[in-house]
Amino acid sequence: MRLLELRAITFKARGHPNVRATHRSTLEITKEEHLTPKGDCIVGVSAELSPADLPRELKEAMAGEALIIAVLCVRNICDVVTGRGSPRLELSDERKMVFRKSSYVGPETVMIGADKAAKDLKRELIDLLSRGEELTVTLIVLPLAYSP
């Protein structure tokens, strides 16, 4: 029997009055403090972390065959987004973190093949974020490759 090596990190961001969360294919959390109504994929601003800030061990796990789980919580309301990592992930953007339903990869991409985009998140969660509430994000990375 082998113990799986789980990697995780938790960080904070906050909502904004312009959070709409209507984008159909992506979900974004940014270090930027402001949000215009055009940012329909953005659910959190003033984030503590960007992909470039992630610890090396977490980046290495994400850049392999891995299941990536993002748990987004505001107060006692949480939603979960699952997707996968890829050797193509650059994880170098210093401003924004993007979760994608597609397989497109850019410097900001932290997950591909996501099962949810901004529009799929619980509306109760989005309502609280549009009031500027604090968002807690936990990224969990579970490597899928097995090596005895």
Head-to-tail CA distance between termini? 9 Å
What fraction of residues sit in β-strands?
25-35%
Inertia-based shape: globular
Instruction: Give Rg in angstroms.
Output: 15 Å
Query: SS-based structural class?
Result: mainly beta
CATH homologous superfamily assignment: mth639 domain like
Major sheet characteristics: 4 strands, antiparallel
Number of domains: 1
The first-level CATH class is given as Mainly Beta
Strand/helix succession: EEEHEEEEHE
CATH fold-type name? Jelly Rolls
Report strand order across the widest sheet.
Answer: 1-8-4-5
Low-confidence stretches: none
CATH architecture: Sandwich
In total, the number of strands is 8
Fraction of helical residues:
under 10%
Arithmetic mean of pLDDT: 94
Count of helices?
Answer: 2
Please sum up the structure shown.
It contains two helices and eight strands. The protein has 148 residues and is mainly beta. It has a single domain, classed as Jelly Rolls.
Structure overview:
With 148 residues, this protein is mainly β. It has helices at 56-62, 123-129; strands at residues 7-14, 26-30, 42-44, 66-74, 77-84, 96-100, 109-111, 134-143. The strands form two sheets. A four-stranded antiparallel beta sheet has the order 1-8-4-5.
